[in-house]
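User
Class, as today's exercise, I want you to study this protein, comparing sequence with structure tokens, and judge whether sequence predicts the tokens.
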Amino acid sequence: MFSTPAFKGHVLARRILPGLPLTLGITLVYVAIIVVLPLGALVFKAASLGPEDYWRIISSERAVASYRITILCALAATLFNLVFGLSLAWIIVRYRFPGRRLIDALVDLPFALPTAVAGIALTTLFASNGWFGGPLGAIGIKVAYTPLGIIIAMAFTSLPFIVRTVQPVLEELDPALEEAGQTLGASDLEIFLRVILPQLAPSLLAGLSLSFARSLGEFGAIIFIAGNQPFDTEITALLAFIRLEEYDYPASAAIASVMLIAAFTMLAVTNLLQARALRYTVKG
């Protein structure tokens, strides 16, 4: 019974790559060099500080201000991307119009564009004499060199994560479920909230976590538009970089470790919520 074509195809599919020992060995070496080694060096350098020095550095007034600015701006950018990214994915999947493929391709532009170039472009557009900054300044809204500029830079660089995680799920949704809701007399809003949104929840959580993590770690696109004023527009990544330029490596590692802990905590919570959401969406 093991000679069926389906079984042979399954065996061949498993044997296309090298055997488990070689494949696993290459994977572990890659993870060790690219992920574990840099993070280990960061933790080791931060651990070289005593508990009192470590706490003094990470709890300083300037460091706490940078945490607040970074986290609040990242949250605002993520919430914006939740609404705009979901709407954009919906339009790309559900509608056909001239220029649709161009818009679909432009979604990946932040991935291909160097973040420094993105920061310069955004600063040029939103400066007081820029295309967008001039009209906004006329009504009293200043973007460049303010926290609003940080939010825009974070939203620009992290938008693709939500669009690309939600888009495939939208494409695979069974239209019969929506038709059943319409047959039962549900409104469009009720169908979206009770039928579509629960099925999108796991992918939305994944996209939100990736978008938030990218916003927390963004550097190149922000430093040009932020103004980098301590206690006002200075993000944590920039403060760590400043300590690095001052050759204060332990302080730089200590500040960076705070964001590392925050990122790991956020990912752990997100994975837990995503696993709970999958319980109600897995078929069968």
